Amino acid sequence: MTPRLFTPGPVPILPKALEVMSHPIIHHRSTDFIQVFSEVREGLKYLFDTQEEILILSSSGTGAMEGTVLNLCSPGDEVIVVRAGKFGERWGQIAQTYGLKVIPLDISWGEAPTGAQIEALIKKYPTVKAIFLQACETSTGVDFPIEEIARFTRTQDLLLVVDAISYLGVSPLKMDEWGIDVVVTGSQKGLMLPPGLSFVALSKRAWARQKTSTLPKYYFNFSKELKAVLENQTAYTPAISLILGLREVLKYYKAEGKETIFRRHKKYAQAMREAVKALNLELFAKNPSNSLVSICVPQGVDGKKIITLLRDEYQMTIIGGQDQLKGKIIRIGCMGYVGAQDLISVFEALEKVLKTLGANIPVGKGVEKLKAVLGKER
Amino acid sequence: MTPRLFTPGPVPILPKALEVMSHPIIHHRSTDFIQVFSEVREGLKYLFDTQEEILILSSSGTGAMEGTVLNLCSPGDEVIVVRAGKFGERWGQIAQTYGLKVIPLDISWGEAPTGAQIEALIKKYPTVKAIFLQACETSTGVDFPIEEIARFTRTQDLLLVVDAISYLGVSPLKMDEWGIDVVVTGSQKGLMLPPGLSFVALSKRAWARQKTSTLPKYYFNFSKELKAVLENQTAYTPAISLILGLREVLKYYKAEGKETIFRRHKKYAQAMREAVKALNLELFAKNPSNSLVSICVPQGVDGKKIITLLRDEYQMTIIGGQDQLKGKIIRIGCMGYVGAQDLISVFEALEKVLKTLGANIPVGKGVEKLKAVLGKER
Predict the structure, then answer these.
(1) B3 contacts in A (CB within 8 Å)?
(2) Residue B267: is it exposed, middle or buried by C-beta count within 10 angstroms (0-12/13-18/19+)?
(3) Average pLDDT of the segment spanning A197-220
(4) Do residues A264 and A224 both lie within one domain?
(5) How many beta-carbon pairs below 8 A join chains A and B?
(6) Residue A214 near chain B (CB below 8 Å)
(7) 20 to 30 A Cα–Cα from A373, which one of A42, B24, B82, B356?
C-alpha cells in the first residue's frame, strides 16, 4: 500500500508539482525565474480573487502571521483576536509578544464567531486597529463567516486580517469583493504543495497602515517584498523549487477553474459529514469547514489508537485533536490533491478500525452514504 | 545543452536529494518524520563539527541571521559588525533595525579582517557583547580567518557569531574545537539543496545568553525550537521535502567523508584561480574562498555581457558583483554538486565569451591550467 496523507496539512501534492520539484533549479535572479514569478503572480491574484499583489515568503504560515502583525501594528495598538481554537490563540500570542493590547473574543472550541459578535465588540472598543481571525480554524474544523464579518469591518477604520491557511484553495474567498484587508496562507494546505512557502495579500488600506507601523522587522519587511514583487522577484532567496511547483498548481486551478475545485471540495466534505452521521458518530464542528471533518471520538474508544491503527494497518495518516482536544476528536482532511476514491478508502479503513476498537457503529453504512453523496465525483 | 548553475547559491542539487523531493511527503508529527529528523540531527552535528544541537528553520539564510540577532541580543547591546561586503552590511542592518549599538569594522571589499584587528577592537570596546561576521563573504569571494579570530574571542565574555552560509559544507569549520559561539547556514550553498531551509547552532555560552535576551521573537524563537529538536521535531511546520532531501545530502557527506569533499572543493577553487591567472586576468579576492572565485572584469569588457552571453550561448549561469561591485567582477561558484568536468566546461565557455567581447586573453591557457591542476579529480 502507498502511504496516504489525510491530515489537514500537509496534504497530498499535485503530481505535476512533485515532478517539477525534481528538476534542477534555476537562479532566483535569472530571466527564467522572472518569467516563472510573473506567471505565479497572476495565478495567485486569480486564486485570492484580488487585484492586489501577493507577497511570497519563505517560511511556514506562522512566519507570515508574525510578519503580518509586525507590518500592520505599532506598540500599544488595540486589536481584537478571535480565539476559537489553537490558531486563534496563536494570533493572540504573537500580538502579545509585540506589546499589543489584545481584546480577546473567546469562543468555545468547535464554534465560530458571528458578525453580530464582532459588530458589538467594535462598538464597545471604537479605537481598535485590527481584527485577527481564521477563515478556517484548523484545530476544530470550523469555518468562520468571513463575508458576513467583513460587512461590519470594511466600513470602519480597522483592518480585517484573515488567516486563510487551511482555507484558501478549498473554498471561495473573495478578498476584494468582500472587503478583506489581509489574507494570509501557506503552501501545504489548499495549494497542494509541500510546506515552506507562505503568502500575504494586503488591501490598499492595509498598505497605507503598513507605512505607519513602527514594529521592527527585517526578514518579514513587507514594503521590501512589495518592491521586489513589482520586479517579479523576492527580497531574499526564495524556496525556488516550491515556487516552480506553485506554478504548476496555479496552472491546474486555472485549467479546472477554481469554482469547480471549490465545488468538489464542498461535496467531499459534505459526503464525509453525512458518512459520519450514518455511522451514528458525532461531528465536532458547529459550522463545519470544507477543508476537513472533525469527528468526536466515540465513548470508550481510545482516540490515539484510531490514529495508530490507521497508520500501522492501512498506511493512512489522519490526526487527532490539539491541546484541550487531545484524544477527544479525530480530524480527516480533504485538502490538497485528494479524490473521491481516497475518501472512500479512508472511511473503509476507519470503519474497520473503529469496530476493532469496540465502537458500536453500523459498519458499512458510512461508506455507503459517502458513495451515495459523492456520486460520480472522481 | 542542459542549463547549469555556477552561481554562489543556489547551486546544483545532489541527484539523490532531487529524487526524494519528488516523492509524496510525510507528516511532520509522524513517527516516520521523527526517524528522518533524528538522522538529520546527527548528520548536521557531524558537518558542523559540534556536540551542540542544530536548529532547522524554514526561511532563507537572512531569516536565520535575523533570528540569531533576536535571540542573542537585548536593546542597546554593543556589537561589533565586520563589514567587508554585502552580507557583513546585512548583519549591520539587522542589528540597527533592533536598536543595537553597532561598532563597525569596515574592511575594503575584497579583503578580510585579521585576528589582530578584532583583538584591538575588543580592547577598545570592552563592553561589546558579540561579534557578527562571515566565514565567507559571498559578495567578494573572500574567506575570513575564523579559527584565528576565535582565538581572541573565546577567552572573552563576548560571542563570536559566524554566518557560514556560503562556507559550511565546502571548507572545514570546527565549531567546538575553534570555539565559535554561533554558526548560521542555509540549504542552498554547500549543502547542495534548494533554498528554503536555514540552520543555526549555538554554543553553551550562546544558549546562556539566549536566555537573557529581551528582543521580542515568535517564529524565530530559539528556545522553542530547541525544545522541539530534542523531540526530533520543529516548532512549526517545516519545509518537509527539503528535510527529506537533506537526509540524502548528509548521508552523502558521511559516505564520502567530509574531509574528502572539503579537499575536492579546495582543489576546484585552486584550479579556477590558477586558470584565471593563466588567462592574465586578475583575481578580486585577497584571501580567496574555496566556495567561489571572483574575477575582475578586464578593462574594456562589459561585465554584464559576459554573464548574458554565457547564459544565452552556453546555458550557464554565473553572476556579477553586487552593489558597489556591479559590472566590476564576475563570480563563479564551485559549491554544491559540481564536478571537474563542469568547471572545465564553464572555463571553456568563459574563454570564448571573453574573446568575443574583445578581451586580450591567451585562449586555451585557462582550461589547460585548470585541467593540469584538477588532474584526476572527477
Answers:
(1) 24, 26, 32
(2) middle
(3) 98
(4) no
(5) 169
(6) no
(7) B24
Same domain, B159 and B252: yes
Judge whether B224 is closer than 8 Å to chain A, CB to CB.
no
Give mean pLDDT, residues A227-238: 98
pLDDT digits (tens, 9 = 90+) for A343-377: 999 999 999 999 999 999 999 999 999 999 999 77
Instruction: Judge whether A236 is closer than 8 Å to chain B, CB to CB.
Output: yes
Percent with pLDDT over 70 in chain A = 99
**Which residues, including other chains, have CB under 8 Å from residue B136's CB and lie 6 or more apart?**
B142, B143, B144, B164, B165, B166, B167, B170, B171, B289, B291, B292
CA distance B7 to chain A (A): 8
Q: Express each pLDDT in A50-64 by its tens digit.
A: 999 999 999 999 999
CB B64 within 8 A of CB B36: no
Which residue of A3, A196, A317 is in closest CB contact with B196?
A196
Give this complex's ipTM: 0.97
Residue A11 has pLDDT above 70, yes or no: yes
Q: Are residues A251 and A273 in the same domain?
A: no
pLDDT tens readout for residues B247-289:
999 999 999 999 999 999 999 999 999 999 999 999 999 999 9
Interface test with B, best of A22, A165, A189, A330 (most B CBs within 10 A): A22
Mean pLDDT in residue range A326-344 = 97
Q: Do B252 and B327 lie in a common domain?
A: no
Q: Which residues in chain B have Cβ-Cβ distances shorter than 8 Å to A87?
A: none
Is the Cα torsion angle B306, B310, B311, B317 positive or negative in sign?
negative
